[in-house]
C-alpha cells in the first residue's frame, strides 16, 4: 500500500453497518453502528470463508477438463490475479476515501458504476447461494443430474420417504439453519461460524486425501492425466468452460471492504487478503489433486456426489457420509457470509435514500425473507451446479473480480495508477472478456449439440 499507516488510521471514517456496501448518503445518517474492531485472525477466517464455498466442489471437475498439471497451474494463476485486483481496489479506495466497493465504483464512474456493481453482486451472490443449496440437497437427498441416481445421506440411512425428499429437506434447512444465521447484522458476528466453516473444509480435505492415499497403496488408483485430452477444435474450446468456475472459486471482493472497515488496524488488510488467498489456494490445490486422483475421469461436476459409491476400503461407507456431511455443514456456515452483502446491496438498490437497514427491522426482515425464498426456489428448479457456475462466473463474477477493478485503475481519477497497474488492468480485461466469451460460446454450442445430436 502507498498510504501511510498513521494517516490511514486517522482518516478512517466511523464504522457503521451500511458503509461497506451502500451509498454515502446512508453513511451520513445520524445513527452509527459502531462495530467492535475485528482481529487479524477473525478477518482471515471471514475472507477465507467468503472464498472457500461451492467452488471447491467443482474444482476436481476442472482437473478432468484441463488435466492435473495445467489445472493446478491455473488455480495458482487465478489466485495471483485475484491478489493483484484486490490490491488495486483497496489502494484506490484509500485515495478516494471510499468505504465500500460501491463507493469506489461511484467515485470512478458515477452512479451508473455503483448501480452496475450492485446488479452484478446480486446476480453473483444469488447464483452462488443457489449452488450452496443445490449441493446441500445433493448431499442429503441425492441427485440424478448426471443421468445416474446418486443417493443422498438420508436416503442411504432411512430409505426413500417424503420427509427426506429434496424440497422438504431444503425447506427445513432454510427455516432452521439459514434463516437464523441470516439475522446477524455485523460481519464480525460470524467469526466463529467462519472459523468452524474453514475447519470443516480442512476436514473434508484431510479425509479425501486419506482415502486417496490408502487406495493408492492398494493399487486401485491409476495415474491421472497431467494435460488436457485434445482431440479436435471442440476440445480446445471446451477448455475455456473452466474459466468461470476458477473465477468464482476466488471471488471475495464484495466482502473485503466490510472486513476492512471492521479490522482493528486497517493497514493489516493486505496481509489479511494475502494470507487468506494463500490458505485457500493450498486447500484448492490439494482438494483438486486428491479429488481427481481418487475419481479420475468419473469425477462429477459436484464431486460430493461421487462419495456415495463403494470406495473399496475399510469403513468406506462411514467415510463417505462423514465427507459429505462435513461439507454440507461447511456450506451452511458459509451461506450467511455471502447473504450479508447480498442483502445490503439489494437494499441499496431498492431503497438508496432510506434510513440504515440495521435500524429498520421490518425492511431487514422482508428483504431477508424475500431473498431466502428466491434462493430456495432456484435450488429446486436448477439441477446442476455447473450450469449456475457457467452463467454467473462468465458474467457477473468476472466483472466483480477482474473487469471492474481493472477499469477503476484505467479510469485513474486520482492519478495514482502506475504503468504496471495499467498493463495488468488491460491484461485482466482482455483475458476475462476473451476467455468468458469463448466459455459462453462453448456452453451454448454443447447445449445445442445435446438438443440436436444429428446436427
From TrEMBL:
Q: Give every Amino acid transporter transmembrane domain span.
A: 37-442
Tell me the membrane topology, using the record's own terms.
Multi-pass membrane protein
Q: Which GO terms describe its molecular function?
A: L-amino acid transmembrane transporter activity
Family matches, as Pfam families? Aa_trans
Q: Where in the cell is it found?
A: Membrane
Which keywords, in A-to-Z order, does the entry hold?
Amino-acid transport, Membrane, Transmembrane, Transmembrane helix, Transport
Q: Where is the signal peptide?
A: none
Protein name (Swiss-Prot/TrEMBL)? Amino acid transporter transmembrane domain-containing protein
Highest classification ranks of the organism: Eukaryota, Viridiplantae, Streptophyta, Embryophyta, Tracheophyta
Amino acid at each position: 500500500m502507498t498510504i501511510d499507516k498513521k494517516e490511514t488510521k486517522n482518516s478512517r471514517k466511523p464504522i457503521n453497518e451500511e458503509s461497506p456496501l451502500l451509498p454515502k448518503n446512508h453513511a451520513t445518517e445520524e445513527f452509527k453502528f459502531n462495530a467492535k474492531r475485528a482481529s487479524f485472525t477473525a478477518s482471515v477466517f471471514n475472507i477465507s470463508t467468503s472464498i472457500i464455498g461451492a467452488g471447491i466442489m467443482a474444482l476436481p471437475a476442472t482437473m478432468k477438463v484441463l488435466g492435473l498439471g495445467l489445472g493446478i497451474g491455473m488455480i495458482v494463476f487465478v489466485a495471483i490475479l485475484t491478489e493483484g485486483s484486490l490490491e488495486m481496489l483497496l489502494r484506490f479506495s484509500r485515495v478516494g476515501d471510499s468505504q465500500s466497493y460501491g463507493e469506489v465504483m461511484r467515485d470512478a464512474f458515477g452512479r451508473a458504476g455503483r448501480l452496475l456493481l450492485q446488479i452484478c453482486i446480486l446476480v453473483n451472490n444469488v447464483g452462488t447461494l443457489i449452488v450452496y443449496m443445490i449441493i446441500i440437497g445433493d448431499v442429503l437427498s441425492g441427485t440424478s443430474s448426471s443421468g445416474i441416481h446418486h443417493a443422498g445421506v438420508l436416503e442411504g440411512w432411512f430409505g426413500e420417504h417424503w420427509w427426506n425428499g429434496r424440497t422438504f429437506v431444503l425447506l427445513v434447512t432454510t427455516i432452521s439453519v439459514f434463516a437464523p444465521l441470516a439475522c446477524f447484522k455485523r460481519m464480525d458476528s460470524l467469526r466463529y461460524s467462519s472459523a468452524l466453516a474453514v475447519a470443516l473444509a480442512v476436514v473434508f480435505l484431510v479425509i479425501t486425501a486419506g482415502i486417496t492415499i490408502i487406495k493408492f497403496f492398494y493399487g486401485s488408483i491409476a495415474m491421472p492425466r497431467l494435460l488436457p485430452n485434445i482431440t479436435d477444435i471442440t476440445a480446445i474450446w471446451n477448455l475455456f468452460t473452466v474459466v468461470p468456475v476458477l473465477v468464482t472459486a476466488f471471488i471475495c471482493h464484495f466482502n473485503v471492504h466490510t472486513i476492512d472497515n471492521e479490522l482493528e488496524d486497517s493497514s493489516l488488510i493486505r496481509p489479511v487478503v494475502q494470507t487468506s488467498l494463500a490458505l485457500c489456494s493450498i486447500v484448492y490445490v490439494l482438494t483438486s489433486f486428491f479429488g481427481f486422483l481418487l475419481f479420475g475421469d468419473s469425477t462429477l461436476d459436484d464431486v460430493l456426489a461421487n462419495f456415495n459409491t463403494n470406495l473399496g476400503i475399510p469403513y468406506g461407507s462411514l467415510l463417505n457420509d462423514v465427507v459429505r456431511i462435513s461439507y454440507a455443514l461447511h456450506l451452511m456456515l458459509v451461506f450467511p457470509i455471502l447473504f450479508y452483502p447480498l442483502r445490503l446491496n439489494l437494499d441499496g438498490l431498492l431503497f438508496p435514500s432510506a434510513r440504515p437497514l440495521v435500524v429498520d427491522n421490518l425492511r431487514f426482515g422482508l428483504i431477508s425473507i424475500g431473498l431466502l425464498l428466491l434462493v430456495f426456489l432456484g435450488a429446486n428448479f436448477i439441477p446442476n451446479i455447473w450450469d449456475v457456475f457457467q452463467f454467473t462466473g462468465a458474467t457477473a463474477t468476472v466483472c466483480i473480480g477482474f473487469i471492474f477493478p481493472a477499469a477503476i485503475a484505467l479510469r485513474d481519477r486520482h492519478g495514482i495508477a502506475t504503468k504496471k497497474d495499467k498493463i495488468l488492468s488491460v491484461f485482466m480485461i482482455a483475458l476475462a472478456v476473451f476467455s468468458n466469451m469463448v466459455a459462453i460460446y462453448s456452453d451454448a454450442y454443447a447445449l445445442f449439440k445435446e438438443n440436436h445430436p444429428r446436427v
